[in-house]
Each structure stands twice: as structure tokens, then as C-alpha cells.
Amino acid sequence: MKLKRKYNDTKVLDQLGYIQVLTPPEEVFVPSCAHGPMILFQRKLAPKPKSESQQPEEESGREEVKAFFACSAYRDRKLCSAFFSLDDKKLRNESLIRERAEIAKIENVRYDHKVLFKNYRELSLIDAANRKFCKSCNLFMKRVGSACGTKDCLDVDHSTCLQAGSLITGIPEEFMRKPLKLFSPQSCKTAEAQFYFAPKSLNVLVSWVDKYENVLGIGTPSVVFDILSKVTLKNYTGSIKNCFCLDIDWKLCQIFAPKNFAQFNLCNQFFFSELGAKSFDKFLAAANGGESNLSESRNACVIIDPPYGVKMEIIANLVSYVMSKVNCDVIICLPYFMESAFLSCEKLKQFSMCDYRVEYESHRVYSGEKKRGSPARFFTNIDLKKFVLPLEDGYRLCTRCKKYVHQLNKHCRICDLCCTKDGPTYVHCKKCKSCVKSTFFHCTKCDACHLENSKCLEKVTKPVVSGRDKKKMAAKKFAFKKSSSKKKRMASLAGES
User: Fold this and answer.
1) Confidence at 52, pLDDT banded by 50, 70, 90
2) Checking CA distances to 392, which of 66, 131, 382, 447 falls within 20 to 30 Å?
3) pLDDT digits (tens, 9 = 90+) for 157-195
4) CA 66 to CA 85: how far, in whole Å?
5) What is the DSSP letter of 251?
6) 166's torsion region: left (phi>0), alpha (psi -120 to 50) or beta?
7) What does the alpha-carbon distance between residue 131 and residue 116 come to, in Å, rounded to a whole number?
8) Among 81, 46, 85, 41, which residue's Cα sits nearest to residue 310?
């Protein structure tokens, strides 16, 4: 579709002020925050238009470029205030940067992983009526004899939580088997927004990875926990022998054994504890057959569910990091509209988009409750001919494309492809020479297909206005409205008199 190609062009994106990920120069020491090494970003802002008051000899239209180090995990400065401009002199001081990194390490680990997991296992031995869980702190209370008090494993008293009504007493066996239901998922969009897979999508993933001996989940605790609960059963007949979970959420240390979990930042491949890094190395050694080199056979599968706001360069670095550690098949969950940005990365050229519509629990857009279905898809380096999708959920095998697609994704004879990516079946536009959404119309102005009432692409590419200028514009607009309303009142009073 021509409109998408133009809009995803790097020159247009740079003009609109998009952020890029850069490689730090050699003379600069990379600073660290509480979430590991920071990432070097670059923001380009379009040149400001020349004002009427500006003199001809004054320079105008100069492109503004800002390079800075920021936290890799949090996009909101209120959540993590670590920030360094690239021209900051502190970045040339190696001893200062190392000292700050050591201070950040101390802030990382809040609780002992072994102590938290031991307490969780001991709680299953006592009566359900005596178990306690703090909903606001996401912590199981420490077992004392045959009951639980109001203190956690670090002897921190939660009496205030009890008065606020967030300390739950009496946890049934069902929640002990599936403790993720107890935890309050993170919902901050600028941080680790957390949504678990819906049961239908979870079953598809688990049934697919069941043929591998080693499974690694990055940001997918629900998948790994479901696999571990099945592997421990006596009647288990699958192939999985080794399973590991990497996630940034510290509270998962309570339900995963140290041999199966490590707190990990996928944006910079940072481990929050030495215990977690060692446990991951043991998993890799087992996956590679006890050898330090990569195994020749692909007997491992990696499932990655990254935050959708992460830059594609960061995801590409994560994939290359994982594939350098173990020879594996990779499944990444992302929205379909990120396909062009995803495949534009050189490290991700071998991936292709599967037509399965991934659903999440309790999500407004990705729950699949709307008519169009969920826009999330699987991106994988697995041959799509082998990626079998459930027929009972409305998927079929396209004999021409030789892959499984959704029933609404019908084969186009002109394109010789199944082109529908979202919603109803796409229609072929002869002028664009491609299939487009059924709600699109061909525009003669921009020679592309888009919604009938939407603005053309030529009008959309406006220069980006900074936050400070936006505030000034809003203040002027408010002052203008205030003065105009005052004039109207004076005119009405004059008319009455």
C-alpha cells in the first residue's frame, strides 16, 4: 500500500521528530541507573518555521538534534529520573560512572529470591484460612508456625495494609496453583505494562512449544508457569525438560524457583542479581548439551512478549543476544501494524508474521472482544508452513500460500498472497496495485488509498512542536478566548443600555 510505504520512510519519520537508538561513542562511558546500563537516544525535531518578527540575516529552519542517555525500562522521567546529555562532562569520568553504577546495584534487589520462594512453598502446607497476602504490596506474608502474621519475609509490618483492607486472609488452593491471579498487574503505559495471555492464546503457545526440550520465556510468566505446572505432573508426555523465565517484575521471585527465574531487563540484557545470571547460565549449558558452544540442533524455543512501546532496534539487539547464547526458534508477540518497522531491522530480516490473532486478558484493545479481533500477532523465524493454527478457532490452511491463515484472510489471485492483516477481507486496488482495507478509498490527490474523510499524507507531515511551545500556544489560545468572551459581554451590556 503506497500510503504506508511513504509514511514509514525514514526521512519522513525523522522530520516528524522520531527518536532513534544510537551506539555510544568509544570516548564516553555508559552510565547506569537502577535498571541497568542506560541507552543512548537521539531526538530530531523538524526546523521551526520562520516568524514574521525574525530578521532576514537570522538563521531559521535549522534542524534541532538532541542526543541523551535515558533509562532503558522507563520512558517517564518521574518513574526514573536518570538522564545524561551526551555532551555532559561526567560521562568522561570513568571512576564517577563506576561509582554510580555500584550505588545503582544496591538499589536493585529488594528481597532475597530463595527466601521468598521458600516461604511460598511453605504456605501450601498450612490451611487455606491461615494464609495471608497483601494486595497493595503483592507479597505473601511470612509463615509463623501454622499461620501467618502481618509481617513479610523481611519482617516488615503490614498492619497499615490490614487497616486499609488490602491484606487478604484465607487464600484458597486454586490461587496457590495459579498465583498470577493474586498479583496486581502493572498497568503503567510508560513502564512495564503487564497483561497476561488469554487462555485460548496461552493454550496455543504451550501446545506449540511442547515439542521442544528447552523453553525460554522473556516477559511471559504465564506461559512458563503453565509449562512448569504441567511438567511436574506424573502423566506428562511432552518433550520439555528445561524451562526458564526472564522478567523485570521482582514479585515473580515468590512463585518461581531460582533455577527457573531471573529478574531481567530485556531492553539492555541486564540481570538484577548474580544469582539470576548464574541460574540463566546453567539453563543455557543444559540447552546446549552441557557445552559452552552453541548446539547444532534447534532444540530450544524462545517466546518474547516485549512492551509495545520499545524501539525495534532494542528488540533486534535482544534477539541477537539470545540467538548468540542458544540455537533456537523465536516467537515474538507484537501488533501487526509494527511489521514494516520490525522487518526494516537488518537483524530481523529472517522473521515473518504469522496470522494468529493473539488475545490478552482484561485489555481494552487486545482482548479480542471487538469485531475486528486483536491486532497482536506472532513474528517468528519458524517456517509458517509448519506453524499449525487451531481449525476450531477459525483458521484454515491456504493451499496456495502453504500456510495457516484466518478465515477472513482470503487469497488474492492478483497479488498471489493472503493480504488481509486486520478486520474484514481486504479488496484489491488496481491503481495502488495492492490489497487495501475495505473501508479505504483511492485518493487522486496523494495517489494512495486511505479513509474517505481523513487528511492526505501531504497535510499530515507537520513539524513537531516542543512541549514548551505547546504550553505557550495553549496559554495564548486561553487568553484570546478570555478576551473575546469579555468583548462579547461588553457588547451585550452596551446593547441593553
Assistant:
1) low
2) 382
3) 888 888 888 888 888 888 888 888 888 766 555 556 668
4) 8
5) G
6) alpha
7) 15
8) 41
Question: Which residue, among 112, 163, 162, 121, has the nearest Cα to 143 in the 3D structure?
Answer: 121
CA–CA distance, 33 with 105 (Å, rounded to integer): 8
Q: What is the mean pLDDT of the chain?
A: 81
373: left (phi over 0), alpha (psi -120 to 50) or beta: left
CA–CA dist 166, 148 (Å, integer): 15
Please tell me the distance from the alpha carbon of residue 212 to that of residue 207, in angstroms, as a whole number: 10
Q: Tell which residue, 454, 345, 469, has the closest CA to residue 46.
A: 469
What separation in angstroms does the CA of 314 have from each of 21, 58, 72?
A: 8, 39, 9
Three-state secondary-structure class, residue 231? helix
DSSP state of 348: G
Percentages helix, strand, coil for the chain, rounded to the nearest 5?
35, 20, 45
CA within 13 Å, CB half, 352: 10
The confidence score (pLDDT) of residue 51 equals 55
Residue in this structure with the C-alpha cell 544496591, named with its chain if needed:
106
- Give yes or no for residue 350 having a pLDDT over 80: yes
Q: Which SS3 state, helix, strand or coil, does residue 43 take?
A: strand
In this structure, are residues 386 and 358 in contact, taking their beta carbons and an 8 Å threshold?
no
Phi, psi of 126 (to 5 degrees): -105, 170
Q: Calculate the CA dihedral of residues 346, 349, 351, 357 and round it to 10 degrees.
A: 80
Buried b (16+ CB within 10 A) or exposed e, 46-78: bebeeeeeeeeeeeeeeeeeebbbbbbbbbeee
Residue 234 has pLDDT above 80, yes or no: no
Which three cell numbers mark 297? 540442533
Query: Cell triple for residue 457?
Result: 499524507
Pick from 299, 267, 265, 266: which is nearest to 283 by CA? 299
Mean pLDDT calculated for residue range 289-311:
80
Asked if 126 and 132 count as a contact pair (C-beta separation under 8 A), the reply is no
Separation between Cα atoms, residue 293 and residue 298, nearest integer Å:
13
Q: Are 41 and 20 in contact (CB under 8 A)?
A: yes
Return the pLDDT at 13. Answer: 43
pLDDT above 60 for 362: yes
